Amino acid sequence: MLSIRMEPQSMATSLTGIFTPNMTPLDAAGQINEAELRRYIDWLIERGVHGLYPNGSTGEFTRFTPEERRRIVEIVCDQTHGRVPILAGAAEANVRETLRACEAYKEYGAKSAAIVSPFYYRLSPGAVYAYFRDIALNTPIDVTLYNIPMFASPIDVHTVQRLAEFPRIIGIKDSSGDIASMLRMMAAVETTRPDFSFLTGWEPALVPMLAMGCHGGTLAMSGVVPEVTRRIYNLAKAGQWLQARALQMLLTDLFDRIIFGADFPEGVRIAVEARGFRLGASRQPIDASQVVDRTELARIINSLLERIDGVQT
Description:
- The structure is a single chain.
- The chain is α/β, with parallel strands linked by helices.
- It has one domain (17-239): Alpha-Beta Barrel (TIM Barrel), CATH 3.20.20.70.
- Helices cover 43% and strands 11% of the residues.
- It has eleven helices and eight strands.
- Helix 4 (125-138) links the parallel strand 4 (112-116) and strand 5 (142-147).
- Helix 1 (34-46) crosses helix 2 (66-80) and helix 4 (125-138) runs parallel beside helix 5.
- The radius of gyration is 18 Å and the shape is globular.
- It starts with 16 loop residues before the first strand and ends in a 5-residue tail after the last helix.
- The relative contact order is 0.14.
């Protein structure tokens, strides 16, 4: 019978549950819509997300200035007011700027900073290690590695194992969708760092990874249907795998329609608006082919929400 790996009583895992890489609403002038962002944060927390992840890939961090990224985290931390932990994206262009972001996020009250490996330039594993080593030795806040090889230099298993030796590095978010690779990371690290968090960033892998002992996920769909991702997590923790599998299939269908129906993350923006929020237009101009059918997407979301009512934890 399948069971979830249990953590030693003496050392709790640093990050667990579903963290939402929230989008940032913009007003008609293309500036941060603070009131709508605060309303969205409250809604996500009320519907059961375990934590928030501002300035993630879904949050379009590259389309904001460093000052705006800091302001986004400051607003999220202030509005959350300790109700859930904040995993704040600190994907800056170099070590110095990343550390400055880490200092600000600690001051605002974030629990950890999620840091992607260097992007644009494709670096060797040794260079990726050196980058994170410098950060680990100087950061004032805990760090979660962010592996997203489609956009940045990959963080391989051996590099994760080496970096886990630094106390400030407390986990990894893996958005590769490579289940085998993540399992190898877990096997390489968990005997020496039982507190190390493993979070999947790929929705179709959520139930398989929870079944293998993953601690949660940072999922774009949790910003659209937080009720569903929380229900899946609860079902998995309760060992109700058939019910969890049924919802996983529905979540994957929604994920495919949103992620592959338009340039990322435009589909997520439209889906969140279908839940009643005003996100405004992206700062990245889009063409007509990227306009998702809002009415059809709203119908799919509502159908999914209706179907979860019959799945009990």
